[in-house]
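Subject: mismatched residue count in predicted assembly?

I count 611 residues in my input, but I want to confirm that the predicted structure covers every chain. Input:
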Amino acid sequence: MNVLEILRGKAWLTAGLLLVGLILLPFLVEASLGKSWLRIIDFALLYIMLALGLNIVVGYAGLLDLGYVAFYAVGAYCWALLASPHFGLNLPFWVILPVGAAVAALFGVLLGTPTLRLRGDYLAIVTLGFGEIIRIFINNLNAPVNITNGPQGITSIEPISIGGFSLGKTQEVLGLTLSSPHLYYYLFLLCVALVVFVCMRLENSRIGRAWVAIREDEMAAAAAGINTRNIKLLAFAMGATFGGLSGGLFASFQGFVSPESFNLMESIMILSMIVLGGMGNIVGVIVGAILVTVIPEALRYTGDLQQAVFGKVFVDPADLRMLLFGMALVLMMLLRPSGLLPSKQRRQELAEDAA
Amino acid sequence: MSDLLQVTTVSKHFGGIKALTDVSFTVRKGEIFGVIGPNGAGKTTLFNALTGLYQPDTGAIDLAGVSLYRRKPHEILKAGFARTFQNIRLFHNMTAQENVMVGRHTRTTSGVLAALLHTQHNRREERDCAAFAQQLLDRVGIGQHTHTLAKNLSYGDQRRLEIARALASEPKLLALDEPAAGMNPNEKNALRDLMVSLREEGLTLMLIEHDVKLVMGICDRLVVLDYGEKIAEGTPDIVRHDPKVIAAYLGGEVAA
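Triage response: the counts match. Full output below for your records.
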């Protein structure tokens, strides 16, 4: 508490400490937990971007989208097709990333247009179908013309290379030896910072207010002069853009994409990050994304633990993961229905109740 | 006084139910125009058809020479026709000020890029918009509640906030759907003063209201609906003595 009090009102000091901490984090993680954990942290950063993107659609505009992973897939396949031996292309990242994000945004509008009149459960079902359609398309688009290479997926995707400096292999920087996940960590961190910046700016803008107004009461929003069609499509497009961006980064980081990475479970996980963390609150969504990515990985160790204590594994860690995850969601809905870190409105409401 | 709103033979049906049949009337600039009628007469349906929440089946609607027939709600608002709702429809989890700022959406222009780059235009617009919202909150008498969430305001204050949100678009014509419903006498008096002073500033008002005393006292002219049809139009005195109106609606009250 003391530390918090010292930091209060000193935004630059907080930001500086946070920055130093974030720069040092991969060194600590790699030294103590190993490279595999560094990869997990990288994935957490990707999921933060995804969750923040979905947060625009679900958290701000209140449009329940269960097919969000489709945009992740579109971004990933854009990268995979434009930078792999599959088509023999190898475009630079600064071409592919915008293309991937733009194509994903286009898909966002494509999904948004037919669903404009739908709300709540109905919207959820249609978006869920859309997510599955994209995945099944990718799965089957290997005949008659082989575009996506079907269920085998696309391999040997080029890693990101910035001016000849490849993030795909271990590099010497300023006398430090940095592994590939370490290098990607910094790139992803930069992208997360960009996405957070965009979300913060939009949240407190005319557009952000229009999104929230639509979430609160669509008919009143229309009567208050908001072109609900355009503003909803904008939310879908912005959310999809972030999905496409993280999809592209994912493809280059992983070096391999296949349709099974983009199933319904992924969409639900991303939605859970938002719900657990606190819908509509940027910090909450970030915390939710980290927890939902890191905790299941940590639970893998329970297998070893069971082996050590009982001599055999009673519960498969993968099953345990789903069990605990389900319990966490149920508890959350009972105890903190608006998430770990509720949005500012909710906080204000609680403060007013206390006063 | 010149005509501001011209409604000509507007009809709207839902399946076999004729909610509005050939309703025509004219609202003159600067007047307070009442819409009365028994429950289910089609008053709110009329407002919804005029403000684009329902698509009328036939007819013509002109506001100061611009056709509003079958336009989208946001286009109608932009043309200068704002409204409030019978069952208050605020953005409950937004502050009073934010509610009013949303109401100013059509009179502001900043898009995504402007917001991201915090352009000078965007910063000035946000500042002006917030200041304008505060003025309107002061104007309707809830200036001290700038940062209170809409849902935490008292009932009367919520009604006022809805009026402030509608005023944010700087309308030529403001349609109020039962603004006094559920208000106590003090709140009703304050509302009446507000309406009169808005009219003095040049705003034209339309008013659906059940409180006959309030309607007869404040309105310059009225239209009376019954079963979706216009049965009378004119000054309160004329309407009050119209036999059709007496039969349909006012009956006992006038006889007494």
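The interface with chain A takes residues 51-53, 72-74, 77-78, 82-83, 85, 89-95, 98, 101-108, 110-112, 114-116, 118, 122, 125-126, 129, 147-149, 152, 165-166, 169 of chain B (CB under 8 Å). Marking this ticket as 'not a bug'.
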